[in-house]
Design brief:
- By secondary structure, the protein is of the alpha/beta class.
- It folds into two domains: 188 residues, Glutaconate Coenzyme A-transferase (3-Layer(aba) Sandwich), CATH 3.40.1080.10; 240 residues, Glutaconate Coenzyme A-transferase (3-Layer(aba) Sandwich), CATH 3.40.1080.20.
- The chain has an eight-stranded parallel β-sheet, with helices on both faces.
- The longest helix is centred in the last third of the chain and has 13 residues.
- The termini are far apart.
- The relative contact order is 0.11.
């Protein structure tokens, strides 16, 4: 490390000094998920109203602590906040008009940030700042829990700033898991705040357990597994850990908590994968501290950029890909919404469509979109998640042409290439029984139903 210490000292600044680099009419990128800067954010927020104007601050999956630039500048005199993927924090900010969503398919993030033709130059930030591990002996700062598209942002922005946090796990690559001291402009030695972690997942509901059973019985030895965000995917992972399955592989944008249990149970070897053999490939982690400890310096896991994990063509190179993701609602046309309640943004497209497509094109692969058949509103009224038409304003995350398996506690159906009538019938069959007659009547009105057209395709 001594080789780089002089350069390190030259580039060392305080958070307040780094914040002074920001000018009006720029984009400032905050990395993604748990790599969001803390000290730099606090310092930047202090500049609200001091002559700065039209500063766009952009994150991906914002986590605690709440970004000061959002709630210390509620009048948006200086800052406007954007997020590539909404978390609970982003949703709450969005409810107050303090955050806006940037829709995209997750695998495209690297294509947007590594852009030699500069056709997406308007998306490249002028300033990038993210939390990283301390510098190693080779002059490298590891991105830790948020590889994703951090490197592309860091090397293509005008001013690259790292905020060092000794608590950040060092997540081995893979690829693109680091930035070198020669590639950055400034270093902030942060206050080493605890890295954001999730509480333990709640116990799965009976409905989630049944859904998990339907899916786990479809998994074969040697399958390559992707699990999305939420309690249900973790429930499925835990059920896999208790199964007789063996030689499983992992390729997933997110490394979730259940993967640790799968490792501990001896289910994961990655021996049957087409590439990244013997390693679990992932692009970020958002989980419990125990999961972060598992990933730290673990050579069995490979932190990679998100194009590597999510490109549908690359996913399809593995045999028997099993992709499992949550959805919010589906209509009788089989259009799937996974990211909004009407006009209210809940999450984002993320990598769901990437893995639905990739799994279908994998030899023996299956893409599962899972959901409990009903939900309760704030007044306790029960609603069906299978609807005649999507809620007005709801976003189509997975178009009907790409949907493969849909699963509720009442069964699973493979809709690929089914007729419109066949799809409507199949969906009604996995809807909650209390809503089936109502859905049949709606299907008739939509000319999607006839008692003489009970056909299997």
């Amino acid at each position: 490390m001594s080789t780089y210490m002089e350069e390190y000292k030259r580039k060392l600044v305080t958070a307040d000094q780094a914040a002074q680099l920001c000018e009006s009419n720029v984009i400032v990128d905050y990395g993604m998920f748990a790599t969001k800067p803390v000290d730099f954010d606090v310092a930047l927020a202090k500049r609200a109203g001091d002559g700065l104007e039209n500063v766009s601050v952009r994150g991906t999956g914002s986590v605690l602590p709440v970004p000061d630039v959002i709630f210390k500048d509620r009048e948006q005199q200086t800052f406007q906040y954007f997020s590539w993927y909404f978390t609970a924090l982003d949703r709450k900010a969005g409810d107050f008009g303090l955050a806006a969503h940037n829709p995209f398919n997750y695998h495209e993030a690297n294509l947007l940030t590594y852009d030699p033709a500069r056709q997406f130059a308007h998306l490249i930030p002028q300033i990038w700042c993210a939390q990283v591990t301390p510098m190693d002996n080779q002059g490298c700062f590891n991105f830790g829990l948020g590889n994703s598209h951090n490197r592309g942002l860091a090397i293509n922005c005008d001013i690259a700033i790292v905020e060092v946090n000794e608590n950040m796990p060092r997540c081995l690559g893979g690829n693109d898991e680091y930035v070198h001291i020669s590639e950055i402009d400034y270093i902030i030695e942060g206050s080493n705040t605890p890295i954001f972690s999730l509480p333990p997942n709640p116990e799965p509901t009976p409905e989630e357990r049944k859904i998990a059973e339907y899916i786990v019985e479809e998994i074969v030895d040697g399958a390559c597994v992707q699990l999305g965000i939420g309690a249900l995917p973790n429930c499925i992972g835990n059920m896999i850990a208790d199964s007789d399955l063996k030689d499983l592989g992992i390729q997933s944008e997110m490394f979730c908590d259940a993967f640790v249990k799968m490792y501990e149970a001896g289910k994961v070897t990655n021996a049957k994968k087409a590439y990244d053999i013997n390693k679990s490939a992932y692009s970020f982690c958002l989980g419990m501290q125990e999961t972060y400890d598992f990933l730290h310096d673990n050579p069995r896991c490979a932190s990679t950029n998100v194009l590597h994990t999510n490109d549908p063509a690359r996913v399809a190179m593995h045999d028997n890909v099993i992709a499992i993701n949550n959805i919010l609602e589906v209509d009788l046309l089989s259009q799937v919404c996974s990211e909004s309640f009407g006009l209210r943004q809940i999450s984002g497209t993320g990598g769901q469509l990437d893995f639905v497509i990739g799994a279908f094109h994998s030899k023996g692969g299956k893409g599962f979109l899972a959901f409990s058949s009903t939900f309760k509103d704030k007044e306790g009224k029960v609603h069906s998640r299978v609807k005649p038409l999507l809620t007005p304003g709801a976003v189509v995350t997975v178009p009907r042409t790409q949907v493969q398996y849909l699963v509720t506690e009442y069964g699973k159906v493979n809709l690929k290439a089914m007729s419109t009538w066949g799809r409507a019938e199949a969906l009604i069959n996995i809807a909650h029984p209390d809503f089936r007659d109502e859905l049949i009547n709606s299907a008739k009105e939509m000319k999607l139903w006839s008692r003489t057209n009970r056909i299997p395709f």
